[in-house]
Amino acid sequence: MEKTCENGVTAENDECGKFIVEIDDGIKLKDGEINREVETRAYRHRFIHTACVCFSMFSLGWRNGLVGPTFPDLRLITNEDLSTASWLFTAISFGGLIGSVCGGFAYDRFNKIAVFICIVSGLGIVAAVAPWCSHFAAMFIVHALHGGFASALDTAATADVTAIWRQKAGPFMQAVHGIFSVGAIISPFVSEPYMAKKIIAESKRSISLWNTSISYLESSTPVSEFNSFETSSKPSNYSLGTLLSSRYSIAEEVTSNFSNFTFGVSNVSPESSAYNYGETYIYIPYSIATFVCFIAASFYVAIYFIYGNVYNLPVYIHSNTKKTIPQREYFLSKKMKIVFTILLALTLTFYVMSERSFIGFLMTFIITELGWSKARGSSASSAFWIAFATGRLSGIIIVKYVHLSIVIMTFFLIITSGAVLLWLAVIYGINLLIWISVAIVGYGMSVIFASIFLWLSENIRKLTGKMASVLFIFFSSGAMVFPILVGHLMDKVSQMWFIYTQLILFCAMCSLFIFVLVLFNILKKRHETSK
Questions:
Q1: Each residue of 258-313: pLDDT tens digit?
Q2: Helix axes 136-165, 71-78, angle to 10 degrees
Q3: How far is Cα 193 from Cα 280, in angstroms, rounded to an integer?
Q4: In this structure, how many other beta carbons lie within 10 angstroms of the beta carbon of residue 15?
Q5: pTM attached to this predicted model
Q6: Over the stretch 83-106, which tens digit does the pLDDT of each residue have?
Q7: Which of the residues 20, 25, 146, 463 has the least number of beta carbons within 10 Å of its own beta carbon?
Q8: Contact 498, 365 (CB under 8 A)
Q9: What's the longest Cα–Cα distance across the chain?
Q10: Is the Cβ–Cβ distance between 94 and 146 less than 8 Å?
């Protein structure tokens, strides 16, 4: 239990008038007598601990960044179609539902350092196992476990920042979630060389000559060797002699009217193709993710033995003052706190649904609808995460000088405009605009999650481990069903539903947050008038 003593110090499990905190083997803080050196060391301890939490989120970002780019290879390993494989995203969300509860409960009830060590180590172990699950049921279970550890770490890290820094948590919250995206930037680049390469096993094509029709079978060849020939829909100048001397073989009868025969090829059109893939080596980037997680876990052990327990330290406004950061007062009634918490939870649920589906299906959309290679798909995923990290890191500065409500609404507008640009780019086939729009969506998503959490903490209620776990239950519930819907629509209706679903979610979360802002300001004015 926290107590505020007469000396102005707030800490866990202390007795007023007998408050003692040990720092660095014997240096003590007693009865409010604060010296500058001790307080500086306490601040350093909190900062280093938060840096360790940041590295844990870096490892989580690294692992999550593998899901989308390696999703086609996971389909190869399990030999499932897109509709069935989409259940892996549901598995992640289902595990996240359980992990959110367990993570928040464990953070509040048990040794927090031990909780972080267990969660990060479990995340690494599950990453090592995933590429070896050839049966879909095993792959489903492994991804459910991944979702559990990932949500538990996200819950604990979010609650930890507010517990350590209180109302100074804004920049640190952005930093913790910003480092997450740095890991997600790197992992697609690392995984790309180890993914299976697509090759053409056999392709039946037809060539229309002047009153002549030729059908032939392509021999096996990597996609990259014939892309320029395959994608050309304009008249070509291939001569018949060049065609016959090439590596293509004519497999069916040639019927022609020789009175009107010419040797110019007027059109080349694909009829059917059978694709094969080479061997996948994605166990290598997944093993690297495991190594990164184990390093993060070892940092907690080292910091604990060097500095001790960070949660025994008081939180001060500045290193040369004795005043602790005061507790924020919330004017809303208990009933209205519940209403606003639910509304913000729904807003964040829409956000998590859009973020996970965008990242998870981006690679599939790129290689299927746009016909890009996996290398370009990985680069597009990295472009998203680069913009995402840039936004998160810039958010550290932005939230210091710009009101949170304005920040959130601005970034809502950014992601919506990015989705519209992506739709236009695909419709009109503008490749450069596709890259730009993916980056815009990534930048727009970057600040929203952490900012809404901060807005909730500043205006509605205190953010504890228990409250964070309740919110993550909302996120996981929505994200559990949505990938199945997106995968089904993309597989059975049109790949363009990847973009349509994003537009729907962006508009929904923006509208919902506007409603929250309007309602909150009305209640705030009434409260000020009554006072």
A1: 344 333 444 444 444 455 666 788 889 899 999 999 999 999 888 888 877 777 66
A2: 150
A3: 9
A4: 9
A5: 0.60
A6: 788 888 888 878 887 887 787 778
A7: 25
A8: yes
A9: 110
A10: no
